[in-house]
Structure formats: C-alpha cells, structure tokens
Amino acid sequence: MSHYIRTVPGYGPQVWRIERDTAVRLGITNPETGPGSYYRANIGETIWDCLKRSTPWFENGSNPFHETELAPGEFHPRIARPNDQHPDESPGANPGFFVDMNFIAEARSQLIVLVRQLERICRTVHPEPATMAAYGHDIRNLLLLACTEVENHWRGILHANGFVKDRYDTRDYVRLVPAMKLRSYAVAFRSFPQLSAFRPFERWGSTEATTRDLPWYDAYNAVKHNREAHFREARLDHAFQSLSACVIMMAAQFGLPQLMHKSSDLLEMFELTESPQWPLSAVYIFPYGEPHKDWVSVNYPFR
C-alpha cells in the first residue's frame, strides 16, 4: 500500500491510497461512490494504466501523483513540516508538540532571557557592520549560553528519534541538516534593521569539518575551553548568529505558533525571512481515519 498526493491546478492537493489494482481518494465521504475518487484496474492492466485510461490527469506524459514518505497520520518527533492541506506554509508544525509542552515552555523562556541579555549588550555596543567584531565578557557569556541551548536542541531531536549515543558531536548533529533543511532558514532582528538577516547554518555540512562549518559554534568551543587564548572570538556577530540558531531550532522543531506563543518579546525581536520549501512527498498527511485514527510518531531514519 502506498500513499500519494495529487496536484490539482487551481485547487488544493488530494491524498490518495493506491494499491496494486485500486486507487482511492482519502479525506472525503464514500469515495467509492463519488465521481473521480475511486478507480479499479481491469484484469491484465495496472492501476496506473487504469488512471491514464480513465482520466485526463496525465497530460504530456506528466504524473500528477507524488508518493509520500509517510503514511497518513505519521510524523517525525520534534521535526516541523507543512501538512497536506497547507503544503506551502513553511516551516509548518509538529503534530506531537503537546508531548513536549514543558520543554517548549522552558525553551521559550530561555530564549526570552537570551534576547534580553542581547538587548542589554546592544545598549552599550550599537550593532552595525562596523561593530560586529566587538568582544567582551558579557558577549562571551551570551555566546556560551546560546550555544549550549542550541546543543540541547540538537541532542534532544536526535534522542527523540531514537538516535542515542553516550556522547554526541557535530558529526552527529549535522545529520539534522537534511532532515530539517536547516540551511534554508534566515533570521532578521526587527530591532536592528541595519543588520542583514543571519543564516547560521548556511554552510553546515558543506565540508567534512562539521565544527568549522559553523564559525560561531567554533568560536564558542574556543572561548569555552581557552578564554585566555581566544577571547577575541567572543564577538558580537557570533552572539547574533548563535541566538539566530536558537530561534531556527525552535521553529524547525515545532513551528512559529509554538515558538512565539503570543510572546511580545519574541514577536517584536525576530522575523523568519527565509524558511524551507518542502516537496509534496515530504509533508505530513492528516490521519483521515486510516490505518489509525490519530497521529503516530515515526522516527526519522538518521544514519
């Protein structure tokens, strides 16, 4: 049994269950008796031959059906994606967010604390391209806290999906890049329109140096382990990048409503200026009553 999303020009996508000799549209009442919602192949032909014979949907040899990675009602823990009813609404949401409500509340509160710490720093050092190399103890402390929070998100996502180790490093964490399309995110700071949007994960995984691909995270490791030698790496731009990474990790796990949650601090501070575009094959499909009646988590196959 396979599931597909059919694109319909001018209308919303349709979800179909296609087996060896039948094709049934899901999400509607009594599809077997409705027009254009149920097809059965004749003896000796495939269901695809039947659909091509019975419909005008395969014009110019194109196939409007996109096979989905997950069955209806399945989702990956702590990975947000659009759903079949709103496939273009990125970053989407995670149907299992209610399991993580305590974590979400704590992470949101921590993010607000970090935002306020950044605002205090920026009352002394006005952030603009000419000052982003400024460094100091308060900036170092913010960098340490923000990167620790990012690590907590990375570790939690892998663990929730069954990828469990005694000790993780960036060679493990970089597996999140394709699963969550982290390179496609950009964050702008509304309070500082003079700054360009930050893309903290833009280069992650582009080389085998999975820590150096993240200059702000590399700086965090340097100033954490040897402040005396690397104090100059506790720079304002690295603090902005690390805080942007926190925002992205929250949005990429649970979606914008769970990130913001009517928090004026966060709504006034951040804007996602870029987020991933997901193929129809990767969106979450509502349960539609089969084969279960509710959402079920399925671990992402991290390797």
Structure notes:
This protein is of the alpha+beta class and 303 residues long. The longest helix is centred in the middle third of the chain and has 24 residues, at 101-124. The two termini are 25 Å apart. A hairpin with a 3-residue loop joins β2 and β3 (22-26). It has ten helices and nine strands.
Going across the biggest sheet, name each strand in turn.
4-3-2-1-5
What is the radius of gyration computed over CA atoms, rounded to a whole number of angstroms? Answer: 23 Å
Helix vs. strand class? alpha+beta
H/E series: EEEEHEEHHHHEHHHHHEE
* Shape assignment: elongated
On the 0 to 100 scale, the average pLDDT is 93
Number of strands: 9
Looking at this protein, list some descriptive labels.
303 residues; single chain; 9 strands; 5-stranded antiparallel beta sheet; two-stranded parallel ribbon; alpha+beta
In short:
This protein is of the alpha+beta class and 303 residues long. The protein has helices at 47-54, 101-124, 137-160, 170-173, 176-180, 215-225, 227-230, 236-254, 256-260, 264-269; strands at residues 2-6, 14-18, 22-26, 38-40, 65-67, 74-75, 186-189, 270-274, 296-297.
